[in-house]
Specification:
The complex is a heterodimer of chains A (146) and B (162). Chain A has 3 helices and 5 strands; from the N terminus they run E-H-H-H-E-E-E-E. Chain A is of the alpha+beta class. Chain A is elongated, with a radius of gyration of 17 Å. Chain B has a domain of 108 residues: Thiol Ester Dehydrase, Chain A, CATH 3.10.129. In chain B, 27% of the residues lie in helices and 30% in strands. Chain B has 5 helices and 5 strands. In chain B, strands 1-3-4-5-2 form a 5-stranded antiparallel β-sheet. Classes of the chains: A alpha+beta (146), B alpha+beta (162). Strand 2 of chain A pairs antiparallel with strand 2 of chain B, so a sheet runs across the interface.
Chain lengths: 146, 162
């Protein structure tokens, strides 16, 4: 992997409109049963404008930034050798249906370890007003030749 | 444990002690669960639904998406809180793959325990096991007290009175 990737910032992704049915579909897929993830009335009663996305929903928006990284011509990342090492989401506020979100990827670090490479990618996700919603951080391990 | 109240009041985080088990749940993943998650998340890597592709890259067979394991592992904590918006930070390390047998599926067990309790909330540590050993490392959920977030949520969605 190209060590010069470290510190590189990518162009913001196109806005992603969080749909209520998408949030419901995702909620069911991760076995969420909380009413505020499924029922707009329950969400409003809890003080939200619409249903709330489960904590890992941000991966849907983050995914397009990771695609940018893997497609970067000089990155030298072989997609078939990539393993997800770790994942983190740090929220300023939860995502709710109706949000229009934009993600900007920054490569926080590139390291080599015993033939493998590790890249840590931080995607900062903001709403339509530019306010921070969540930062999604992935560490990808790229296995070396075996 | 989960008494429902009209205002969805969260558990009293100040009353927690380190080591308290706040939630425990078992999940059965099947191939259907993986297909459903693939569609919902947009992660269509075929190692999560095709044995032949998984085996061609040296795996025993179809594996669960790591992000599906991460996504379901926090749910017992969300149910305990009664509000997923109180999760301020959530991290995991993927330490062991979860093969999902076509006939038998895979059973994951989640135990959520208080790791840290302080003035601003608590850190809940998750132990997620499949067939004995853990599949996630450093699985930590930072939860915050209810008052702080509902105000933030209301403000951010423009529904708070000025």
């Amino acid at each position: 992997m190209n060590p010069e990737l470290q510190g590189r910032e990518f162009a913001p992704t196109a806005p992603y409109l969080v749909g209520r049915e998408k949030v419901r579909e995702f909620s069911r897929a991760v076995f969420a049963t909380s009413p505020i993830n499924l029922d707009p009335e329950a969400a409003r009663a809890a003080g939200y404008s619409d249903i709330v996305a489960p904590p890992t929903f941000a991966v849907v928006i983050q995914e397009s930034t990771l695609a940018q990284l893997l497609a970067e011509p000089d990155a030298g990342i072989d997609f078939t050798r990539v393993v997800h090492g770790d994942q983190r989401f740090t929220y300023s506020r939860p995502i709710v249906a109706g949000d229009e979100l934009t993600a900007t990827l920054r490569v926080a670090s590139v390291k080599s370890l015993g033939g493998h490479s590790m890249v840590t990618a931080e995607s900062s996700i903001v709403d339509a007003t530019g306010a921070h919603v969540v930062t999604a951080i992935s560490t990808l391990v790229v296995r070396g030749d075996e | 444990m989960s008494t429902s109240t009209p205002d969805h009041s969260a558990p009293d985080l100040q009353a927690l002690a380190v080591g308290d088990v706040v939630a425990e749940k078992t999940f059965t993943l099947t191939r259907d669960s993986l297909v459903r998650y693939a569609g919902a998340s947009g992660d269509f890597n075929p190692i999560h639904y095709r044995d032949d592709v998984a085996q061609s890259v040296g795996l025993p067979g179809v594996l669960a998406h790591g992000m599906l394991t991460m996504g379901l592992a926090v749910q017992p904590v969300v149910d305990w809180l009664g509000n997923s918006g109180l999760v301020a930070d959530y991290q995991v390390r993927f330490t062991r793959p979860v093969p999902v047998d076509a006939a038998e599926g895979a059973v994951l067990t989640v135990v959520a325990k208080v790791g840290v309790a302080d003035a601003s909330g608590a850190r809940i540590d998750l132990t997620v096991t499949f067939d004995g050993p853990t599949v996630l490392g450093k699985a930590q959920v930072r939860v915050i007290a209810a008052a702080a977030t509902s105000a933030d949520a209301a403000a951010s969605t423009g529904s708070a009175p000025a």
